[in-house]
Each structure stands twice: as structure tokens, then as C-alpha cells.
Specification:
alpha+beta; 4 helices; 28% helix
Length: 165
Amino acid sequence: MKIRSALTALALVVAPSVAVVGTATDAFAVTKISQATAESMFRSVGITWSSSGNCTNRNNSTCTSFDQLNLATAQGAQTLKKASGCALNITGGTETGHASGTYSHWNGYKLDYSKYTCIGNYIKNNFGYIGLRGDGYPMWQSGSGNIYTDEGNHWDVLYYNCGGC
């Protein structure tokens, strides 16, 4: 058995609540949380959420799901709410229907927020503009490295970390 395989197996036995994500040469651990845990975290700081289907089923694109959300993503949302003092309404989570990729909604790294003047001003005044994403949408980056993309009718936020929680 290779050393890397043995270490990965050991990590999964020692820390069963931690999922290993990434490639064999670029693996790192993230903690996944449940729908109920995320809702409790968001409720505790006044973050709201909505879905066009009024549901939370991860496998339904009209739902807004937090199932399998990364803990750091939920903490990042809390950090944004506390730092900005703005209303935050989540309209997209880990449900199917978003673009794929390692740092995707499905993999727990992204949240979508309703566009409100307050949060837009906070992002544009406190984070650095870093240019246009490949699809033409403008992006800002926080000091912690998280990426805030203005997708026209909502904010798409990529959380690499909790944003200084």
C-alpha cells in the first residue's frame, strides 16, 4: 500500500466528519455540514435564504440546499454579514444546476446572494477589483482571497476560507 493511500485511509478513520477533496497530488480536508447546521448558523446572524421552489432538496435545481456545504463557506457568509452589516439573502447553495468544477456550488464552495445596494457597495468599496471572469462578469477579491462575482442579477461568492472568522 502506498504511503499516501495509507495516510488518506488513516485520516478518514481518525476524522470521519472530514471529507478529502481534490486530486491525489493536491488533496486537502474540508468539513461538510448538514442543512440543519447551516440553517442554524445563518439564522444566528440574521442571514435569510429563499428558493424559487420553496425547497431544500440538493438534487432539485429550483431548491436552495445547504446539504454538504463546507463549514468554511458557512462561516464566510457569517463573516460577510457581520463585517458588512447588510442584509444577506442566499438564493443558491449546493443544489444541482450550477456550473461544475472543484470550487463549485455542488462541492460546497459557493453561495449566491440577492443583489442589494448595501452588499454591492460593501463589496466594491472594501475588496479589490480583479477583472472579468472568463464569462465576462466582474470580480472582486477580499483580503482573505475569497472571490465575489457580480453575475448581473445576483452575487456569486467563492469561499476558499471563512474570510477571517
